[in-house]
Design goal:
Two copies of one chain form a homodimer. By secondary structure, chain A is of the alpha/beta class. Helix content of chain A is 44%, strand content 19%. A four-stranded parallel beta sheet of chain A has the order 2-1-3-4, with helices on both faces. In chain A, strand 3, helix 3 and strand 4 form a beta-alpha-beta unit.
């Protein structure tokens, strides 16, 4: 079983966290055969935390977890904090493959998507 | 003349601001006939500010400026601060059309792009 974990920063504004949960539901609908389950987790403030999100996926039967940072730039959170959380959970669960995907800001299609938003 | 202004939050980490400038250069290359010029501006911390970015575009000859919020969720910056800056510059330059595009988090193609990043 293969699981995708969308990781966002987490906000004091609950509507922003709800946006992440709605996006997670959309990803789950569109995942097709790529992922059996899609969940979200938050670096700070909101729940579940990244370790709890990974743990939930593993308890639900995931043998591979892809952690996707929903961040636009490679600040300390992307470069250090999220990889550290992933390494720590990987050490706890050597039987599960936990892989970090590139953060959103690295997506090749981003410039085209921005132009399409600006000039529909 | 039509100008696109990519608006990011701005970071204390100069490398993050440089990522925005590099993305702006990419957008400029890919804009084709959609925009004659692409610039960036920052809500806080980095330069130019949003009013200065709009002013530079107008001084360079823009008669239409599209302001594109490079933000993932509709927090106060997207819902209030950026629209207020745009309204204020529009009042100063009634001869120029200044239009706010949807923020990145609203892009239809975002779920597909996230799945492609996670499962290339």
């Amino acid at each position: 079983m293969r699981s995708l974990l969308l990781v966002a920063h987490g906000s004091r504004r609950e509507a922003s966290n709800e946006e992440i949960r709605a996006l997670t539901a959309l990803l789950d609908q569109q995942a097709g055969e790529r992922f059996d389950q899609v969940r979200c987790a938050f670096l700070e403030i909101a729940e579940p935390s990244i370790p709890d999100g990974i743990e939930e996926a593993v308890c639900a039967g995931a043998r591979e977890v892809v952690v996707l940072p929903y961040f636009l730039s490679a600040g300390r959170h992307v470069a250090e904090d999220i990889p550290a959380e992933v390494r720590s959970k990987q050490a706890e669960h050597p039987e599960v493959r936990i892989r970090l995907a590139p953060y959103l800001g690295l997506a090749d299609g981003l410039p085209r998507m921005l132009l399409d938003l600006s000039d529909p």
